[in-house]
Design brief:
This protein is globular. Helices cover 47% and strands 15% of the residues. The chain has three domains: 82 residues, Orthogonal Bundle (Arc Repressor Mutant, subunit A), CATH 1.10.10.10; 55 residues, no CATH class; 172 residues, 3-Layer(aba) Sandwich (Rossmann fold).
Length: 342
Amino acid sequence: MDELSWEEWQSLCEMMNGYIKTQVLSSACDLGVFDVIERGATLASLPRQLEIDEHGCRVLLLGLKHLKLINVGETGKIENAPLTRRCLLRGSAQSMVPFVHLNDKIQHRACLHFTQALREGRNAGLDEFPGDTPTLYGRMAANPALERLFHEGMGAYTRLSPRMMAIEEFSDVSRLLDVGGGDGTNAIRLCERYPSVRVTLIDLPSVIEKARANIAARGLEERVTCEAVDMFTDPWPQGCDGVIFSHVLEIFSPEKIQFLYRKTRAYLADGGHLFVWSLMCDPDEAGGLQSVKSSLYFVTVASGQGMAYPVRDHTTWLRDAGFDVVSEYDARTIDHCALVAR
């Protein structure tokens, strides 16, 4: 048998050892390494500033230098790389630190149960979190700290998805129903970008209070109202000529998505707009990485269902529900797509 080529060996090592990158990044964010470095640090001073062992600090820096998140000068001064300054400082406008925490403490932790989930046909990663409800969202409702971590992380993730905002059809809507709107991040961004749009946000009771607080902090109470509603079982508030699902549908099975599309069609008057902003995999269902990761997370812990479905599935379901898909905004670089239907 031929020996492995260097390229094959490197590819195999990347698959086997990629989790190390996640662990180095997560530990650095837990320790606040990048914020300490930004205030001024050297190889000699960093262990004391972080209150960790010198040898452990050396190993951590080995990982951070490999990831090119820091640079060390000849004098031993440590500096953050440009990407680190932009996205990994806790106080930066585009900080992804909350999502790093979500990724580590919920998604990565739970996805260690992927094999068990496949064998048992259930979201076995849910065993990591106390409670008896069948989804992660139900268990978070009884765990305020976990729910806060989740929504802060998703808020950070959403803020770095600018393409969803550049949809011209939003200007044709006067009041938008944000279904499963979470902590209000999308509603706030939409109102700031489209001055004529008003939003009604619906979500579970434990989430709504967070949304109201965020909206009040931005002075948008007159334009965004929040109501505690179960999207499946409760009637939706009336008076909207548009509906948006943002990072909601991919959690569910095809049957539940089709139910929500039919419910939306019955809710909207003729000519009303439906906006779908979702993780979507490649047409041949061969990637990309974010769609694979999220699909594992949905199956292993979130709901035991769902995946980053390809565009064609959504298009079929929308047409079956009575919609015409009028626009497709491709964001394949981040494994997303936005669909606009009427």
